[in-house]
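Table S5 (text form). Sequence records supplied for joint modeling of the three-component complex.
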Amino acid sequence: MEAHTAAAIELKHIVKTFGSVVANQDICLTVNRGEILSILGENGSGKTTLMNIISGIYFPDAGQIFINGEEAVIRSPKDAFDYKIGMIHQHFKLVDVFSAAENIVLGFPEKDGFNIKRSAQRIKDISEQYGFDLDPMKKIYDMSVSEKQMVEIIKVLYRGADILILDEPTAVLTPQETQNLFAILRRMRDTGKAIVIITHKLHEVLSLSDRVSVLRKGEYIGTVQTAETSEAELTEMMVGKKISLNIDRSEPENPQDRLVVEHLNCVDRSGVKILNDVSFTARSGEILGIAGIAGSGQRELLESIAGLQSLQNGEILYHNPKTGAVENLRDKTPLQIRELGVRLSFVPEDRLGMGLVGNMDIVDNMMLRSYRSGKSAMLDRKAPRNLAERIIDQLDVVTPNANTPVRRLSGGNVQKVLVGREIASAPTVLMAAYPVRGLDINSSYLIYNLLNQQKEKGVAVVFVGEDLDVLLELCDRIMVISSGKITGVVDGRSATKEQVGLLMTKTEEGDSNA
Amino acid sequence: MHNNEKHKREPRFHIAKRDALVWWKAWLIRGCAVLTALVVSGIITVLLTGLNPIGVYATMIDGAFGTTRRIWSLFQNIAMLLCVGVAVTPAFKMRFWNIGAEGQVLVGGLATAACMILFSETLSTPVLFIVMIAASILAGMVWAVIPAFFRANWNTNETLFTLMMNYIAIQLVSFFTYQWSVPKGSGQIGVINRATKIGWLPAIGGHSYLLNILVVLALTVFMYFYLRHSKHGYEISVVGESENTARYIGINVKKVIIRTMLLSGAICGIAGLLLVSGTDHTITRDTVAGRGFTAIMVSWLAKFNPLYMILTSFLIVFLQKGAVEISTTFGLNDSFSDILTGIIIFFIIGSEFFINYAIKARTVQKGENA
Amino acid sequence: MLVTFIQRAVVQGIPLLLGSTGEIITEKSGNLNLGIPGIMYVGGISGVIGAFLYEQSLASPAAINPFLAVFIPLFCSILGSLLMGLIYAVLTVTLRANQNVTGLALTTFGVGFGNFFGGSLIKLAKSDMPSISLTATSNCFRQTLPFANDLGWFGKIFFSYSFLVYAAIIIALLASYVLNRTRIGLHLRAVGENPATADAAGINVSLYKYAATCVGSVVAGLGGLYYVMDYASGVWSNNGFGDRGWLAIALVIFAVWRPNVSILGSILFGGLFIVHNYIPNLSVSMQEIFKMLPYVVTIIVLVVISMRESRENQPPAHLGVSYFREER
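The corresponding structure-token record, covering 1212 residues in total, follows.
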């Protein structure tokens, strides 16, 4: 409680805006030495922006930063290094064609000159000290995700940072790797370092940190001692008010097999298995949830059904409700799938990079799916304009008009435009990847309702989510994927959170190296 | 400790991306850039020639508009530059950096010249024209589709590839100028069919350039509608903005790249036809005269809008004509025009920064530590 | 015959070597500078202007001071190319203009600048010389090692050149060393590969881009100077330098972005450039076909490296893209 040490970092009234978006509004925070502080917040709450300000990537519009009680001006990452601040980014900042050692010494002026062999030896020493298994001369493009994270962490250790910021470090790690990481972080704390970990996983917050600071929608909500708080209190701080989710869920009516996926296998560019013998069935009139740690193969699974991912083997069988015919969608392009009469809609995870074109207006984005219709070589903008107006009206899209580039809409409105368009084509299968990520509560509920409406219309809905509470309240069945393998399918009404959580981390013990 | 004023290292301003600037402000900035560039060009001219500033601009205007012949020549040059600009634009909209228009136009011209030389006695005039048009378009397409094919299939860097293709085209033309040179071995083809005028594009109403200008105008309007209102144009925009989105909605990216480059090459071929059959009636290594490169700037300055390109090509050709007049008057080298063109483009591309980015002063809030 | 061929190939290759070394340094920072041909013209003509004014100030050509005769053109050339590099850097790095457009404009400007002053210098300086022929200065530039002729073919191939030839090779080796063996090189490569990462690592991306572009321009400009002072014996003729600037850019690809490979590559290109002179009974028109060879070879290299899945020997990943930190 009492300030026995000088604060390592003290933030005062930090403001940062991007165009019209306020990412950080008047944030005040303190990080002490010898403690682990968690910064908790939902996606889009401004956690990462704030940490980027501390590490010199962004410069605040207003406010002050104090390091060890002295006001600091951090204009660049180099300034941050000078204050011994080290950041481990969620998206690795590594040069692919460089070796681990080259990446680690990058931008670090060692006093005894540049000698990559000597640096490699030092890296080996650090690796041994903390139990990392890393070849310093290995090229980044040959590395797995967890190896890349090791490089990032060693990079900071190599520089002797005493204030460490980790942005969602466990998202890509196995439970075992996570435990290793936590052990290291605790050891560092005990040697007097200040550690900030950004996360939205409550159990990690509770098991690791000494104090928790909560952000919500760019604003600072408060800080509590971990020992004195509970999951419920933190959730309330994070989401604003205590919410019982109360998502409506109707009983599926006359469910029939719509999409039967059998034995899908696929590898990524570097030959790593991403989908491992995946089989499941999506039925009409029900919502099938897909749960799993981020990056377990969810994206590849949906993309292979949508015709965007080449497969090693497996079948994707679509049962056409009108004709009763069964079509194999494997190795078909999105266009061929549509030409078969398969009404498959897909709300991808990357909204502005895949689902929509940011620089085009709403009308032109409406046309993405439908512009081919008609024999004319020219475009018909009338129907898309009407659709745009209707979606703006029905889904309360906040936009000056239908001719506004979607890039300028807020995240929730972007998603409404995307989901609205995908639903407008009267799909028989609707796949949505993280459709409420970054959305406020109201928008999220709007999306849940839309999915439920589709389900009631007899659409087979596939919902990839990250929030277990939502999955358990929204979905009829939940399929759990872990490292590209289906570890179980549970009933949405009877399953417990623990049950799903366990399945999400299963493969590691189950069948290891295949 | 609270109010220690330690602002000495704070950056006084920072740069942020603008959402969008009102259109008239954007054009005001561009206008100012052009004006500044003209003033700078004027100053440089005054320094080099000792002419008074008003005289500089008067001479330039005289060079561009002084006589009827000059006006025709001005519009002919605008049309040719515009034609190549129109040709490269669809590729640029697709973010395909085709800097090989020089070569594509040149092979189009070479094909035209070949037809004029080889078939002038064997084919009747209408058939010859059809063969010329087909040959020039085909040649331009072949030259454009080779780099497109490699880019589509192996992501081969198209900027460097198309650049190299230019020089292969130039050497090819050199080869044929020796093969067909008149008189033999002179390395020059000279005016083809000077007496018979076979294969020359006809003069309309006594104006030999009018047909060229009309063809280019038609192509410009066509390209505007093609890019803005056709399904192909829409696909080009989607591919240019995001290849991921294009895949997601089932656009065959490879097909679009190749189709667009075929179109681009075809129009380059037509430009070659207009230059050889409609203007020079001969072919040399310098027939295209750098238009393939200048057209890139024309297209880019016009934000890839074919209608704006009429303005930007006018601006550049006017400068060139004006500068040539100044150099002639003062017995200087006419490369002076390239210097002025360079300066004006530097200013305009520099001004885009102020349209796309805002420089914001940092608002320092003091005395808030209550 | 073969000895002469190799010797001529080296002489032909040196402007390309300097141009491509300069362009490699620039491209390693992520800047695709298509203004190199213009910069090489400016490098050449600036040296000519300096030498011209110096020779004009002399009472007689015999009074020439060898040191000044070399130093003045060299200094002017460096200054001219440096300014060109600065124009490119200000526009593309600070003002984030499109690199292709800026580079092409720079080439238009530079070639125009060269030809304009090449064609107008005499008139502007109110001199009575019939043409720009800087024989005295050129003789200073063309000093060769005295013992070269005593060593037969060996001396002719290795020691018969002027100092700029050796300088070019040393510069290429030095560039190779700096790029691959020093911290500056590591940082520069990081900037070209992944500027966001370099930025996060505390590297001043803009500074590196500026420095690489300016140093690259100066090196390339020396290629222009070498061409006019040594190869062309001090005689400036408009468009005489031709398309060597573009050939230098081709050589960058051929050398897969390695200055040391560029040394052999430039000699090979130089050889390809003149091989038609050494093939007996070649018609004039076929000579023109032979001049295509360097470009064809470059395209083949470009296609082969793009077809191979290898992650090595690729262009810098962020070549041609401006970097803006607050992008999101």
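Note: The radius of gyration of chain A is 24 Å.
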